[in-house]
Amino acid sequence: MPVLTKEFYLETEGETHIINITDYVQRIIKDCGLKDGIVCLFVPGSTGALTTIEYEPGLLKDLPRALEKIAPREAYYEHEKMWHDGNGHSHVRASIIGPCLTIPFVNGNLTLGTWQQIVFLELDVRARRRRIIVQIVGD
Amino acid sequence: MPVLTKEFYLETEGETHIINITDYVQRIIKDCGLKDGIVCLFVPGSTGALTTIEYEPGLLKDLPRALEKIAPREAYYEHEKMWHDGNGHSHVRASIIGPCLTIPFVNGNLTLGTWQQIVFLELDVRARRRRIIVQIVGD
Amino acid sequence: MPVLTKEFYLETEGETHIINITDYVQRIIKDCGLKDGIVCLFVPGSTGALTTIEYEPGLLKDLPRALEKIAPREAYYEHEKMWHDGNGHSHVRASIIGPCLTIPFVNGNLTLGTWQQIVFLELDVRARRRRIIVQIVGD
Q: Which residue ranges form the domains of chain B, and what is each CATH number?
């Protein structure tokens, strides 16, 4: 059973840009020719996060609103003392959502629900180039 | 080292029904005969989530109360515009908790703490039939 | 491809003590001699959690403040009825952050971002001895 490590890049548009990465991941699984296994997704960086969601316009506004409640943009953050880059809330949100996802695939297909997509959340305050690691362990 | 994919079904009772699935997962590991490895749990669907908790009646009320703070049921959700199914908060909560868990097992036993159980959180507003994927990579 | 299971222990100082465990994990990967694979980190116990963060003094105060908003220490918890140990909020916070992380490594190196560290969050109200499971599947 091999381990395969792939990656792809995203150009984000800044704060709470939510990008559907399902097709990227599904294509990598198809291309690697493995049938069954685990795909481990990981974002290097402390102001981005990965999760799943039903990717429709309403929820792309609703999820950021909940994150604003947990860690409001305009609150005071100690992080500012060191960096003055206005993204203390971005770091806090990213630590709560988390940087990784693991998803089984079967017969070359992700086991997602019909209305469930894999998303990258840009939580930083500015546009970023993001690298997503896709590691596959399977048969 | 093989990859084994199993699944089981849950009949949930609706919003914030929290189901202890530890025994289902532990039994699958025992039955597969593998000694050491990773079990990857995944819920297909965007209004359910997986985590661990001490499964006692108090916390089964306390965790939903915290989720109500993060994404209140009675708040306005843009998701309503498209679907009118009253579960915008369910989606937001599920994206924050997340759809997957990975847990090591050693000598056929999950490495859970003494008071730590694996739970499925039904976050949707109605009773659902839920499929849980259990994928095992191990020796 | 082997599965290797290691562990290490932490002596925590009590509530919201955040410990950088990156070097522990990186050293275990180096010592095992595997090149590429997934490391699965897991904390046995229902009042601790794992995530990543930029490990600098400001954020070590900012993240606990967000957790205080989600599950305030002084709120009423049903968990108290059973245990009277004043850590209902600890359990709720731990269930939201989660007990596991999965991180790819490539050429023996964790694929973390430059400013991203792996941390254990002590969410219990008292100092604890904590065991962290490190399971590696790789080539």
A: 3-138 (2.60.120.460)
